[in-house]
Amino acid sequence: MSASSLSTFLRNPLQLALNLAPVWGRLSVLLLAGVLSILLVLIFSNPLRTVEERLGAMGWTLTTNDYVEQRITLVTIDEKSIAEIGPWPWPRQQMAELVNALDDAGAQLQIHDIYYSEARAGDIELLAALQAAQSVVLSQVPVLQSNQTVSVGAMSHPLTGLNCNASTSAGGSAINVASTQSFVANHAGFAAIATGHIAPIVASDGAIRHIPAVVCVDGAAYPALAISALLEAINSTDRGASIVAGKTLFGPAWNLQFDAYPGLDIPLDRQGNMRISYKESPESYRAISAADIITGNFDPAMLENSWVLLGETALGMGDVVPTPYSGATPGVELQARILGSLLDAQIPYTPRLANGMLALLSLVFAAVLLKLAAASGRVSAYGLPVAAVVLPVLALTLHMQQLSSNEIWIGWLYPALYSVLASSLLMLLELSRVRGERSRVFGNLSSYLPSDIAKEIAYSLPSSAINAKRCDVTLLSADLRNFAAFGEARPPEESAAMLHFFFVRATEIIEQNGGRVHEFKGDSLLAVWDGQDKKAAQQALQAAKQMQRAIDQNRFSPDVPSGIEPLALGIGIEQGPALIGSIGPAHRRSHAMLGDTVTITLRIQEMTAELAQPILVGECAARQLGDFKLESQGSYLLNGLRIPHTLFAPSFSESPSLPNKQGKPNLRVISASGK
What we know:
Layout: H1 3-11, H2 13-19, H3 22-43, H4 45-56, H5 58-61, E1 69-77, H6 79-85, H7 92-104, E2 109-112, H8 123-132, E3 136-142, E4 151-152, E5 167-168, E6 174-175, E7 178-180, E8 183-184, E9 194-197, E10 201-202, E11 208-212, E12 214-217, E13 220-223, H9 225-233, E14 241-245, E15 254-258, E16 261-268, E17 273-275, E18 285-289, H10 290-295, E19 307-312, E20 320-321, E21 329-330, H11 331-344, H12 354-374, H13 378-406, H14 413-448, H15 451-458, E22 467-481, H16 483-489, H17 492-512, E23 516-521, E24 524-530, H18 534-552, E25 568-583, E26 590-594, H19 596-611, E27 615-618, H20 619-623, E28 630-636, E29 645-650
Helix pairs in contact: 1-2, 2-3, 2-14, 3-12, 3-14, 7-8, 9-11, 12-13, 12-14, 13-14, 14-15, 17-18
């Protein structure tokens, strides 16, 4: 690409595409749309990613599972509990009573989405209750996404076998798990109770869509609360784990595996996070108020052999987050979702080949848009705008289908954004191309017809009806006499050069004097001025004189072919009404000027040869030229007419060129070279 082409591309990429062949121009626009899409995704990453996540989650919300989750029961510290038991945090003795009540009701596993970071009165009773229960898992909070440095309590129950610097797969690739030195954990007195972290990744819009499977604190890897609960449920003391790279292109980037749970592969993304599934509606989860548990006002069947998630749901306690279903969802519900996904082995993930799949979908969209742009007529005119709407919806629909059916998060933003940009740019390109072609057509029409007529033809549909209007005009007919004999003696190239010069120079003069050429016919032309007033008549006469002078002076070669008369220019001028418009069938129209004024003007021009006058003016135009010295040439019955007409010619002093002694006009013949 040359420097000028590069400069043109930077200023107006579409202009460069217009200069290419249509197919290459469209391909360059598609390539430009791809580059722009990448730049937009990089520059506006956060807002675009939020849009992708929110709309993409409709794959869950539009096809929710409404069945009741029987395995997990939520025990909530809600407004009712606060009102009956007292403000939070409750005394440890009260918590011990709650733990005992849950165990007595047959809860198989208690998962506390709360932590006990400070030593308080009643810790002995609470610890005894926790140890007496079948299985209990407490929470601890590594502090992520914050510059705050805290160290409260003691982190416990890490996984073994994981390298917190880099967990390396057999293939040699590595993943850096989330790491921090800040945490809020249970105090050391509860170190014997299993724990798991509740440290979600908060997105830019405040929503929680991912949670680290493990978090490294001071070189030790601690599992998420739901994972720790799963390990606790199998009563295994082996906490060995490993993170291995995905083995298939359609599988996850990483898998978290456990020595004590063969066959369980927890899919992770490239940052080592689990995606939270929102497939189940909030109504799927059964909830019992903690106050009802303490008072015994509940159905024991709801807790028997179930996993109990104990957490805060009361407004004002701070443990609420926005989800696709609600702007204020309790955090304990998110833990229930993660735990349910683990039990079902249906954790949503992004395939390793996701970017390639999106690129392939974008290529398919590009092929569709290229086909539409290359189509003719209405297919392209309507197809591209429709594609700008349909293709993004199709990309979103494909994503939603995979998410709903297979719990696979592919994404849809890039192909959707690309299709919108590509469709828009192709529409601009085709519109510019059509406008350019229309401009060329109009320019070509204007070279054959007056501009106003050309515009009317270019922007209206053809019709078989007469489309003409009556108007007053001043006409000038100019004929290059003796041209037939000249053309017979000269090569056609020289005749064409002569006629070309005559038409070009005459047109320039006529337009400079306010007129326009109506038509070229043979070796003559017909020019028109609007109106039949003094100004139009004067402009027509002035143009006639300049045309005679231009052809007479330094334009015609003195080498006149032997045996023929020299070339001469005869001009007739008259005013009057005329009918101007188009006639003929719709598939073959003709622009015409009709009326007596046209016929009279042509006949006056023919009389210039008989009267040996280069310019003759009809009586109507002569009335407007009182300031000019016109000499009457008498009254004549013009050929084909029944009424005599008086003709006038500019006087001797007004003649465009002086006659020689023999009374012959001083005419010269232009050569084929135009010199």
